Amino acid sequence: MLAVQAGDFYKLLGISRDATTKEIKKAYRQKSLEFHPDKNKEEGAAEKFAEIARAYEVLSDEEKKEIYDQYGEDGLKQHEQGGGGGGSGFGGFEDVFSQFFGGGGRRERNRERQTPDVEIPLHVTMKQLYLGAVIEVEYVREVLCLNWQECMKNSQECQGPGVRVKMQQIAPGFVQQVQQKDDRCVAHGKMWKSNCSACPSKTTTEKIDLTIDINRGMRPGELITFEGVTDEKPGYTAGNLHFKLIEKEDKTFHRDRDNLYKTVEIPLVDALTGFSITLKHLDDHSFTVNVNDVTECDHVMRIPGKGMPRRNGRGFGDLYLTFEVDFPDKLSDEQKKAIKDILSSSDQRDEL
């Protein structure tokens, strides 16, 4: 039964039990790319990706791999929860000391650190936000070199990335725990070998292709996030990459949330007698606006359902048209007289 359990993680990565560190790393890269949720949209891909990541976490760690091979996954869980023996050599004294001075004890040590998140502005048109869009981008990041595990050695003094703790005797029967900064410490219990030829620079440059899905109606300032794809570093999990939507200025419409705004200039005669105009929307479809009454300068007209798509998929916002009346620079005497006669006769009819 134990042998079956111990084979699960190896089976997930498609490797044998005597696979080398290099082969484990290579298999993980291939499997993680195959089932990454950003690339594989099939049902169950995300769960498979998590299982693969867990298998690599165990098999790439010498101590966890040894426990897993001997006692299976149940034995490994007991060890990780503090019930499997072993440990760093400092035992309960270290936990009490860390908690007393604000270190947080075993839970703090076991919590994985993360490389910084990265935010990149993504400039898109209002039309792309209206219709939705798919954008392919190439992202350059630093990843751990293939043989980086060969440059790690066990060190009980390493308590995390850049943190080294030493026990010093200050008097007979008294010891002191001293915390120091040491960049050679790359993880809890792990130290980087100096001048390691297998991985001299710790990381290499990698280009990855990302597919950015912009949903209809998304708004400026929203973030599209890819988890765990920023720079890798020994002892850290990769941070998240955020693309922040920046809406380019549109020549026709102005946007406020789900509503659109447009200014339309009309001649005085149309303002007085009514008019009909045809407008082209962001998706290039045309629609007609009819006005039969007198239009005042700066009059605002609401057209329901002609705004941006709502993000929840339930309809559209509204379009607001502001009319500016273009008055003539000058009128002839005949034009002035004709306007006076028309308006005067209109006033007389109103009085009757």
Features:
9 helices, 17 strands, disordered N terminus, alpha+beta, 352 residues
Model description:
With 352 residues, this protein is an alpha+beta fold. Helix content is 31%, strand content 33%. It is built from nine helices and 17 strands. The strands form six sheets. It has a four-stranded antiparallel β-sheet, with no helix packed on it. Strand 14 (275-280) and strand 15 form a beta hairpin. Helix 1 packs across helix 3 (45-59) and helix 2 (21-35) packs antiparallel against helix 3 (45-59). The radius of gyration is 34 Å and the shape is elongated.
Q: Which word captures the global form?
A: elongated
Helix content: 25-40%
Strand order across the largest sheet: 6-5-4-7
The quaternary organization reads as: single chain
Number of strands: 17
Gyration radius from CA atoms, angstroms = 34 Å
Uncertain runs with pLDDT below 50, 5 residues or more? 1-7, 83-110
Compute the number of helices.
9
Short characterization:
By secondary structure, the protein is α+β, with helices and mostly antiparallel strands. 31% of the residues lie in helices and 33% in strands.
